[in-house]
Amino acid sequence: MADLQDDLHTAAEIGRVDEPYPQEAVVVAPETYEPVSDPDAEPLTRARAVLAAHPVADGCSGLPWALRRLPWYDLDLGESGLDTDVPRLREGRVGAVFWSLRLPEGAEGDRAVGAALDQLDLAKGVVAAHDGGLRPARTAGDVSDARNCGRVAVLFGPAGAAALGDSLSVLRALHALGLRVLTLAGASWAGAGGLTRFGEEVVREMNRLGVIADLSYASTPVIRRVLTVSKAPVLFSRSAARDLRPHPANLPDELLADVGRAKGLCMVPLAAEQSGTTVRDVADHLDRVRAVAGPECVGLSGTYDTGGAHPQELGDTSCYPTLIAELLRRGWDEAEVALLTWGNVQRVLRAAGFAAHVAQQRRPPSTATIADLDRP
């Protein structure tokens, strides 16, 4: 036990930013942006021009789970029973997408681990079967390579915290299989009371691996503690502004300000329940997050194929130009739109990779267990 304690950070070390990621390596400076559209063109034409250069990185898609109910599908040809297929991804100028690895309701322990593996296996198989339009990605470089090859980059995650089965070994195995985002909500070590000691060690091991923490639906104590403990930026895969629309996953202004200070990323969902029923409602949330957290801390989350309703004019993945046109009408400049759609996600991916490189030089894989750290 003494050896285990020596391997863990002391309380004084937790959250110490002694080796922060260099801002110049991970932030796209707005002043370096060169306009790509005619400022006198109508907004939809300008939106398509901007998205051609800076496509959408979509923070959450439920496609793998939705495909389970279909006896046959071909995403290259198109699927009317889904919100997503390759032709509509291209029409919507989507360059990257995070595929949510959904777990069955109430799954925990071995059942949750098995369900996560099933979802990963399905997702990887779908990408491999549609390699003319999709390409798996793990890093910011992979995402850029996919875009340069005319493919949509697919990143695996978020997956629920239950997928770990309370084991850091399982976390490492899932990472090796491609998991890149983990939602820190619903586990015994990340609940209403905040992170336990084991939960803090999960975050540190995620940093060491380069797995990004997703804090949508997490409790306020968990959010605040992760923002302190994590050496890499966090993201909220589907969170809008709570002051505009009350919802458990939406963030109040005080937390949005915290996210801005931590250089995290709040990805506003195109979901009627969270953001409203019109494209203008979604734009209102984007305006609010940009104003409170900053233009470098706001992103987009389609939440397509997750089973929920979408705002008018944003019914599927082809509709992103309509939303961007609305933002341009409201006075967003092209540099801010470029950060919203592409630059901010790339920054977070690069920062997570840099933090992992630093952490791997400083500590070996953690041998901590929940029994050792959270024993009464």
From TrEMBL:
An annotated GO BP: proteolysis
Q: Which InterPro entries match?
A: Metal_Hydrolase, Pept_M19
What are this entry's molecular-function GO terms?
metallodipeptidase activity
Give the stretches traversing the membrane.
none
- Pfam families registered for this protein in UniProt: Peptidase_M19
* Residue ranges that the Swiss-Prot or TrEMBL entry lists as coiled coil: none
In terms of PANTHER family, this protein maps to:
DIPEPTIDASE (PTHR10443:SF12), MICROSOMAL DIPEPTIDASE (PTHR10443)
The molecule here is called Dipeptidase
Taxonomic source organism = Streptomyces griseoflavus Tu4000
